[in-house]
Every structure is written in C-alpha cells, then in structure tokens.
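Human: If only I could read backbone structure tokens as easily as an amino acid sequence. Underneath my words sits a plain record pairing an amino acid chain with its backbone structure tokens. Take your time, and here it is.
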Amino acid sequence: MQEMGTGLEKIYVERNNRRMAYGYTTGSCAAAAARGAACLLLSGRAPEEIVLLTPKGIRLRLRPESCRMNGAEAVCCIRKDSGDDPDVTDGVLVWASVRCTEGKDIEIDGGTGVGRVTRPGLEQPVGAAAINRVPRQMIREAVLSVCEEWGYAGGLAVTISIPQGVELAARTFNPRLGIEGGISVLGTSGIVEPMSESALVASIEVELRMRAAAGDRFLVISPGNYGADYIREHLNLDLNRAVKCSNFIGETIDTAVELGVQGILFVSHIGKFVKVAGGIMNTHSRNADCRMEILAAHSLRAGCEAETARAILDCLTTDEALNLMEKVGVLHPAMETMMEAIAQACDRRAYGKLTFGILVFSKERGELGRTKNFEEVLAQCRGGLEESEQA
C-alpha cells in the first residue's frame, strides 16, 4: 500500500485465517489521474491527494506519483495497487494527460500501453481505446466535477497511458481478443477484491457449509454478479441464501456432495456454463476456453452448415455467436442439446448424488435454456426458504 491512507485500510476479507487486502482497479487509477491532471490544469495547483468515490461506494484517497505541466497539458500518474490479488498490473503507473479543447465535450482516448480494439464484438468499437464503459464514466465524472468546481465550461481531452502495458499485454488474453498495443483499462466497481485461488475455494466451501448447516437441502449458486442479478430479478429468491462459486464449478459440486445436500440450482451467464457442456469444471480462461468450439459443435448437430460453424469459431464473444446461430435457425435446438450436455457433465461430477436445476442466460437475450429438472429444483429452493422463515 502507499504510505498515506487510501481508504482501504479497514476493508479486507478473511480467508484461511488470513486478512487479505483490497486494492483498486486500473479504471480507478485512470479516473484519479485524470482528476489530478484536470485540477492542475484548471487551478494551477498540483493536488497532494486525490479523492475518488468508486462505483462500489468506497472513497479512495490516492497520492499522485507525479503531477506536472507539460506544455499546454497537465499530466498526472497514479500507481496501481491490487492489494492481495495476484494481478499482473499491480504496481504499474497509470498516466492521464488533460488539455483544453475548443468544444464542450469530454474526449477520452488511450495512449501508450493502452490497447486498441481491432476486431468487432468487444465492449468498445473497432478503433477505440480499450477503456471499458465503467472506467470511461468514472473518468468523465472525475474531470466534470473539477470543471464544475473551477467554473470551466469548455471541453477537455483526456488521454490515458500505461507505459508498462505494452510489455504486460503479452501476459493477458488481449492479443487473442484482437486488442493490440497494450492492456485494457478495466473495472466495474473500481475496487479489486482479493481472489487468491486456494483461499477463494476455501471461502466458497465455508459458505456452502454455512448454508447446509442452516438447513438448506438445495443450494442456490451462481458463478458471479450476472447470475446473482438474474436470480434477484427473475427468480424471486433471497440472494442472502445464494452462493457465488466464481470459476470453481467442480469444487462446488464436490463440496455439495460431501455435505450431503440434495441438489443445486445453478444460474449462470452462458459465457461461463457453455464450457461446462464440454466437461470443463474450472471455467477460468487460463484453464480452458472452448466456448466457440462447443457452440459450433452443437450448432452442427442442430443442422447448421459448415460455413456457419467456421464463422462461429471466429467469433470473439458468445453474444456474437448466438446472433449467428439465431440467424440460421439453430439457436434453440443447439441450446437444447447443450443444456443436456451441461446436465450430464454436472451429474458425472456428482456421481449421480445430486439433483441439478440449471438455467443459462445472456445479458442481451435473457434465458437461453434450462434443464428438465429446473422447475422442480426451483420449487424446492423456494420451499426451503418458506420453511426457514416459518422456523
């Protein structure tokens, strides 16, 4: 951590009897650096401390490593701190340069070490800097607040640079995704939560044991926030009873079998569970990424032409592949066989000792498929909730 307080000193998670520190994202660094540069540009004074409210609601207090004028533009940099998360970007310097423009817009672009999108299908359009939506919004809000503070009504051009990003990009999946020249500026909450793999698996096991000890015969599980949001919005289940299993599908099933529960309700974005259809039980991309191969195989089985299968293999995202599958009329039959494959893979992992209800969705399309037992398991989960409330 930096010498001064960042606002994260009292925020941690305990895993395996160890306190693990939170950190902050490249998006937070970029927004703080942009705010610092804008302050210097519009006030003439370099801030000693930059205060940034993250989307998670945590207020960061960050000290610039450097903040100075460079001709007509102001530049400021923040050093990334990933806490106890094993992140390749830990310690990198994130720079922002800010200059006045004739218009009234806030223009945001990437400089050295920030990748550029070269293929369609990603969050940003082709040609744009790989600065994702939430970081862009954070940067915009950070500089607009400075403009308001100093009564400036003109435009600003903000350029984010991460010099080490050119070298670090080779250690990420960016080149394979069609992001060239550097890393991406990421983060949806502004905060990095520590994700030590062994500690994370242990924490998941603890949560599962707590749910079983509370009398849950059927466990409600999602890999992450997308699944949790879907459960809350569409299934009328208490999220306090749901467990996030991250990428560890296999370990979660193993623990459920060990605990002697009756079944699992899995709700997942297709980007995760499409891999389970291929028997992949750790869905992190560094372990395996056969999403397009699996979608292409089930599309072929549903009757698509070889040309379509080849096009699916060239897709970057599952949404892009789903659009192709729908266009040629194989989306629904392919999802039916894929859901069967997912159910079989989970059943094999559990040695037939659990009943699974599984729903797969996408953000764009909503529900894509569910297993035959889904309604039965959902009813059991709701019944268990009612029993718990009556007790």
Observations:
- Residues 385-391 have pLDDT under 50 and may be disordered.
- The two ends are 46 Å apart (CA to CA).
- The longest helix spans residues 331-349.
- The longest strand covers residues 93-101.
